[in-house]
Amino acid sequence: MMSILLKDIPEEDRPRERLLAYGAKSLSNEELLSIIFRTGSRGESVSSISREVLKELKSISDLKDASINSLKKIKGLKTAKATTLLASIELGKRIFSENNIKERTKINNSVDAYRFFAKYISDSKQENFMAIYLNSQKRYLTHKIIFKGTLDSSLVHPREVFKIALLESAKAIIVMHNHPSGNVHPSKADDEVTKVLIEAGEILGIKVLDHLVVSREGYYSFLEEGVLVYE
Predict the structure, then answer these.
(1) What φ, ψ does residue 146 adopt, rounded to 5°?
(2) 33 CB-near residues (< 8 Å, 6+ apart)
(3) d(CA 22, CA 24)
(4) Which of 58, 70, 89, 210 has its CA 20 to 30 A from that of 132?
(5) Angle between the 46-55 and 29-37 helix axes, to the nearest 10 degrees?
(6) What is the pLDDT of residues 201-228, one digit of tens each?
């Protein structure tokens, strides 16, 4: 099949121009991929590369599991285009995930907090300290990884944790961090961080509802152990 170059397509029929005129929803999967890839490669038009990608898929949803190695096996798809596509896929995942959480998630207990949010940090090979921000009905507003590294009360400063709470008008927070070792029993530093955050939250009128120490196997909850109590 002869490869049609983008410059040979009438301007009004080119993907980017069609998107501007009619919106992204009007474009086919091939056209959307062509916009992401921008240009072809030697001997291959951008349209033919996009078609090659789609030929390798049973469904467009299979792209969610694509890897750099699997994409680079596709004819005409080199590292630059493969990484651009992976970045676009990841951004879409994050948008969907956050919107889905915002629309549906009410954190009623420690199990909910672990189920919805531990996936963001539990597999990390270093400690990640994350804060989850909630409204007065304990519904999700946003979450953010505040700190990476060995947990210490002098490093996890309440200023960084509560700055976002104030910007989001949050009424409560849940904090969570992982133990790469898999042992979720809290350390002395974990206890100190929890105490400091509770005290800072009381001053600001933002309640610390729980602190979870997590791993892939499970979690320790300061709430369930009686250190913190929901009102």
Answers:
(1) -90, -35
(2) 49, 50, 53, 54, 85
(3) 7
(4) 89
(5) 120
(6) 999 999 999 999 999 889 999 999 987 7
Closest C-alpha to 130, from 36, 193, 195 = 193
**Tokens read off for 147:** 């700190």
* Strand-pair partners of 210: 174
Alpha-carbon distance of 75 to 180, in angstroms, equals 39
Which DSSP letter does residue 23 get? -
- Is the per-residue pLDDT at 40 higher than 90? no
Alpha helices by DSSP H, listed for 26-78, are 29-37, 46-55, 68-72
Tokens 């602190």 -> residue: 211
d(CA 218, CA 105): 20
Alpha-carbon span 105 to 139, nearest angstrom: 6
Length of the chain: 231
Nearest to 169 by CA among 128, 136, 137, 127: 136
The Cα–Cα gap between 48 and 58 comes to: 18
Cα separation, 174 vs 114, in Å, equals 10
pLDDT digits (tens, 9 = 90+) for 153-190: 446 788 989 999 999 999 999 999 999 999 999 999 89
